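Quick one, tokens below. Sequence please?
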């Protein structure tokens, strides 16, 4: 089933839209099946869980960190990941920069936007994103390449549309500023239930788990 799901999804996505397979809680053999079917980017929420899959799959694919990153996990994370999609504070950006400079790596990062303005949720508020980006744009070992958002939980996924639309406008606004050391290329929005809406609203990266691997138990 995983193979068929991947092939179906890849044939459905418009050209230029990148598929990140969200692999949290999946077994190594499930992830291998997805890679074998054509997955080129794996999204992971837990650093420790990733080490097992990374030991086998290595750099055959690209690895995106899509979970909430804790400071004490950054040192391990920078060894594995090609992109960290969830930077939302100067503090975590500085830690990534520091750990990357140790190993001579420049990390691609996305800024996570709390588009639903939810108190307990991670992500920077839309109105604070520009300041955060300007603050961390001078760090030599990170490269800001776009924005990511989850959006609030909505019973009706159609209700997510305005949050995606606002994030897209923010993405365009920051892109037009042509800030130095910033290359606004990726807009990562949409999951299994919302990726079609996200793409209509301008996403060029979607993060999909259940539609590839089945429902999480
Ligand atoms: C789990 C997860 C996804 C994928 O969710 P599905 O509903 O399984 O497609 C996407 N993004 C993030 C940040 C996730 O944690």
């Amino acid at each position: 089933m995983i193979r068929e799901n991947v092939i179906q999804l890849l044939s459905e996505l418009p050209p230029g839209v990148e598929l990140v397979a969200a692999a949290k809680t999946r077994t190594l053999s499930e992830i291998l099946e997805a890679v074998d079917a054509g997955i080129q980017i794996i999204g992971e929420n837990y650093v420790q869980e990733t080490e097992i899959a990374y030991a086998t799959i290595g750099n055959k694919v690209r690895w995106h960190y899509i979970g909430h990153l804790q400071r004490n996990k950054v040192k391990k994370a920078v060894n594995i990941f090609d992109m960290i999609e969830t930077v939302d504070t100067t503090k975590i950006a500085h830690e990534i920069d520091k750990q990357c400079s140790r190993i001579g790596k420049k990390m691609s990062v996305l800024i996570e936007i709390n588009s639903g303005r939810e108190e307990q949720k991670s992500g920077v508020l839309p109105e604070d994103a520009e300041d955060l980006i300007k603050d961390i744009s001078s760090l030599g070992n990170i490269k800001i390449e776009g924005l990511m958002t989850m959006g609030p939980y909505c019973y009706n996924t159609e209700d997510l549309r305005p949050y995606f639309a606002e994030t897209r406008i923010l993405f365009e606004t920051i892109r037009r500023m042509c800030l130095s050391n910033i290359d606004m290329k990726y807009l990562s929005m949409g999951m299994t239930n919302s990726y079609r809406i996200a793409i209509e609203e301008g996403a060029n990266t979607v993060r999909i788990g259940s539609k590839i691997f089945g429902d999480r138990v």
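The mean pLDDT is 97. The first strand starts at residue 18 and ends at 22.
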